[in-house]
Specification:
single chain, alpha/beta, TIM Barrel, 8-stranded mixed beta sheet, two-stranded antiparallel sheet
Length: 316
């Protein structure tokens, strides 16, 4: 890959910058091969079960793990806005006052505080991505842009993907699809694979769970499915969208798309539930993970529906 050996040549004074809340290396679930997944902050949806609540707002945010706090008071002394205080042996944060500067994170001796969200330039992101280039080349991997919602920072996302394509990397976009087609189409020019979340077919139910209707999401899926490799991924939320009826409807929609699109079912992951308390938000109601047997039953429904839909398409 001699033509992809150069470093990104971007003017540091002119390139876009954005807010990144995580960069996950050696990722094997966000596209083919070994990948680096870059999580951009900010999302237009407000899913009631969100497993990454720190990703919803674009601005950096403080996560406070009170179980690690020993009440040393260093965060109180260093805060320029007077947002920190002590209550007994634990610190508190007035999030209305907080400047999200991260000074308290720097001085905390017990890692009780974490700043979610870091302003990075495109060059900084690409430099991180390139650290594992050898793994991409040997495994058929690459970089995946995720969130939050990657298209929520459209210029930042576009230039990252463009630079990665210039460097010869395989690129994937993980998206909920809730953005204008003008934005999506520009970004897709530099995307090899789309990982597309569909949570519910019914518009009213979708709005009740996510805060938005799904008409834009469904229409963008139809457009993307006509010319880009795409995998539809359904995060199964107990009591919201994991019924046989909804899964069957999503599978029927996927089967109706112009090209063959794969569909994955993702069992509920409760690991993010504890983040709400660390962010000073009301804790979401705990949900039990679906059993392996139930997931397999749903997969059987998906397979039957896709076979039926695709046979229908062939015959037409």
């Amino acid at each position: 890959m001699q033509n992809s050996r150069r470093e990104a040549e971007v003017d540091e004074d002119k390139e876009p910058s954005g807010v990144v809340f995580d960069i996950q290396r050696y990722s094997i679930h966000d596209g083919p091969g070994i990948r680096t997944t870059v999580f951009l902050k900010g999302c237009p949806l407000r899913c009631a079960w969100c497993q990454n609540p720190e990703s919803q707002y674009k601005e950096p945010e403080i996560l406070l793990n009170k179980s690690n706090c020993t009440g040393c008071g260093q965060c109180v002394a260093v805060c320029p806005a007077g947002a920190n205080s002590l209550s007994g042996s634990s610190a508190e944060v007035d999030r209305q006052k907080c400047l999200r500067c991260g000074k308290c994170v720097e001085v905390c001796p017990n890692e009780a505080r974490r700043l979610s969200g870091k302003i990075m330039s495109v060059s900084e992101v690409v430099k991180e991505v390139l650290r594992d280039r050898k793994f991409y080349e040997t495994s058929g991997g690459g970089v995946t842009l995720s969130g939050g919602e990657a298209t929520f920072q459209p210029e930042f996302a576009l230039v990252i993907l463009k630079e990665c394509k210039t460097l010869g990397l395989h690129t994937a976009l993980e998206t909920c699809g809730y953005t204008s087609w003008v934005v999506m189409e520009r970004i897709l020019e530099y995307v090899d694979l789309v990982l597309y979340d569909i949570k519910h077919i019914d518009a009213a139910n979708h709005q009740s769970g996510t805060g938005v209707k799904n008409d834009t999401i469904i229409e963008n899926a139809r457009r993307i499915g006509s010319f880009k490799p795409m995998r539809v991924r359904v995060p199964l939320i107990p009591g919201f969208n994991d019924s046989e009826h909804n899964v069957r409807e999503i599978a029927a929609f996927v089967g109706s798309l112009p090209n063959t699109v794969e569909m994955d079912l993702l069992a509920y992951n409760p690991l993010g539930e504890g983040k709400y308390e660390r962010m000073g938000k009301e804790r979401i109601q705990h949900k039990e993970v679906q059993s392996d047997a139930y997931i397999e039953a749903l997969r059987s429904i998906v397979n039957r529906e896709l076979r039926k839909s695709r046979l229908h398409i062939v015959r037409s």
